[in-house]
Amino acid sequence: MADPYYITTAISYPNGRPHIGHAYEAIATDAIARYQRQLGREVRFQTGTDEHGLKMVQEARKRDLTPRALADEMSGYFKAMAEKLEISCDRFIRTSDADHYRASQAIWQAMEAAGDLYLDRYEGWYSVRDEAFYDEKELVEGEGGAKLSPQGTPVEWTAEETWFFRLSKYQQPLLDLYAAQPDFILPEARRNEILRFVEGGLSDLSVSRTSFDWGVPVPGSPGHVMYVWVDALTNYLTGVGYPDDVELYETFWPAHLHVIGKDIVRFHAVYWPAFLMSANIPLPRAVFGHGFLLNRGEKMSKSVGNVTDPMELADRFGVDALRYFLLREVSFGQDGSYSEEAIVTRCNADLANNLGNLAQRCLSIIAKACGGVVPEAGDRTEAEDALLASVAAAEAGMHDAMGDLALHTALDAIWSAARDANQYFADQAPWSVRKTDPARADTILYHAADAVRRIAILARWAIPNGADKLLDLLGQHGDARCFEALGHPLAPGLTLPAPVGVFPRLEAPVEA
Ligand code: ME8
């Protein structure tokens, strides 16, 4: 396999259980990783947990646990979620892993060797919730005159001796980077925010802490642990063997895409490339800041009590339904809203009534009327030509959309062919044609089955379970599930297993 591709999610803070925003990011990134695999690329996909920092220390204290015990427990939930949601990661990294300490210390030493780290006293505002330092000018006023970060989180005054990173030195190199690589920050709106921020000037960044010890020790500086974002961002390098596994590193670094949420674009598009420039490490090709998921249009928060457990949704509606809904309904890059009713409506329309119904009807007739063997196709009529053209247009539309990371548009293109295939089947009515012209009925059944096969291959990166079940029912294995297989027709004469329903109808939630 050639053409390596490295993609990552952000790593989540395991200071609580995963919520649907975490699930969304993992699903979207997984969809892109699977798409790239179906193209035949050698993909490496990493996700995991970000376990150091003050936020973890404080939450552990509240629960009377050590930070490590808290991380062990909660990281387990994130791992279980990844498994349940069919997240096809090659590594689930924990920043408490030993090789991650090694990588973080190596990048630190490289930045130090470049003359970019110096010891000084830090005095300024810190938000534990964001694990971020803010300039006075960035703060906003909250209720009762309280000072809040631009994200609306509380800030506290901190004063301690820390190591500083010469971020100010990288203002111009960063602006040059954004100009030379307009696709470095995606989508465009996020790029503009970052441009404005960097053009406004960059202060040096405090990159170590002495007031707690839950972090990666700063090499040669007892009492200092690294600022959590220095080690967190380095996870992307750890996962490809930096600094020891040269072969893995050279195969996959620089990363093709870091998928993250819109609230942490600054860390990925400013700090991260600056650290890498300093350490003389090539930069990732792109950072995509997706939108936030809102519960019925409202921000999720523990106090409002509308934080949804993604595992419950997956149990209730099925993994494919949850994945399909999130990928189809949210414009990738923008905020999106979800509700149980919306999941039911969307999935019943597109999965149960459309693709699932077509597959079920077509395969049952093949089972009954053709002895479960894919029939021979006779001469094509205009109807078959139109169906084939619709599926070919879906394929082209999907690739175009995926080139722009417009996952929702890619699915829309595929489902336009699914609608056409359903219409074809209803119009051609093979069950009634069979009575007068069995050869023509065979042709219709063949083309309907081939359309299902093609649509399942096209949609497999989004709904891996259901698509694979359809492809099982169509006798398609292994390589026959990659996009390359779209270049070949379905083989007549293939004996198929007994058909079963693939996408169950979902029940609407009962009003409380
Ligand atoms: O930020 N909708 O961790 P995190 C969509 N550890 N995405 C959401 C979301 C929502 N409602 N809420 C959060 C961190 N996210 C750091 C990252 S990376 C080196 C370190 C996204 O657990 C969020 O934007 O707060 C981020 O990309 C990811 O979930 C983890 O968030």
From TrEMBL:
Boundaries of every Methionyl-tRNA synthetase anticodon-binding domain copy: 374-480
Residue ranges annotated as motif 'HIGH' region: 12-22
Keywords on record: Aminoacyl-tRNA synthetase, ATP-binding, Cytoplasm, Ligase, Nucleotide-binding, Protein biosynthesis
Coiled-coil region: none
EC number: 6.1.1.10
InterPro entries: aa-tRNA-synth_I_CS (IPR001412), Anticodon_Met (IPR041872), Met-tRNA_synth (IPR014758), Met-tRNA_synth_2 (IPR023457), Methionyl/Leucyl_tRNA_Synth (IPR015413), MetRS_core (IPR033911), Rossmann-like_a/b/a_fold (IPR014729), tRNAsynth_Ia_anticodon-bd (IPR009080)
Catalysed reactions, semicolon-separated: tRNA(Met) + L-methionine + ATP = L-methionyl-tRNA(Met) + AMP + diphosphate
Enzymatic class: ligase
Methionyl/Leucyl tRNA synthetase domain location: 5-363
Major place of residence: cytoplasm
Annotated localization: Cytoplasm
Record-linked SUPFAM superfamilies: Anticodon-binding domain of a subclass of class I aminoacyl-tRNA synthetases (SSF47323), Nucleotidylyl transferase (SSF52374)
Pfam family, one: tRNA-synt_1g
PROSITE patterns linked to this entry: AA_TRNA_LIGASE_I
GO MF, one annotated term: methionine-tRNA ligase activity
Chain positions of motif 'KMSKS' region: 299-303
Subunit structure and binding partners: Monomer.
NCBIfam families: metG (TIGR00398), PRK12267.1 (NF008900)
HAMAP family, alphabetized: Met_tRNA_synth_type2
Family label: Belongs to the class-I aminoacyl-tRNA synthetase family. MetG type 2B subfamily.
Function: Is required not only for elongation of protein synthesis but also for the initiation of all mRNA translation through initiator tRNA(fMet) aminoacylation.
Identification of the protein by name: Methionine--tRNA ligase
Biological source species: Sphingomonas echinoides
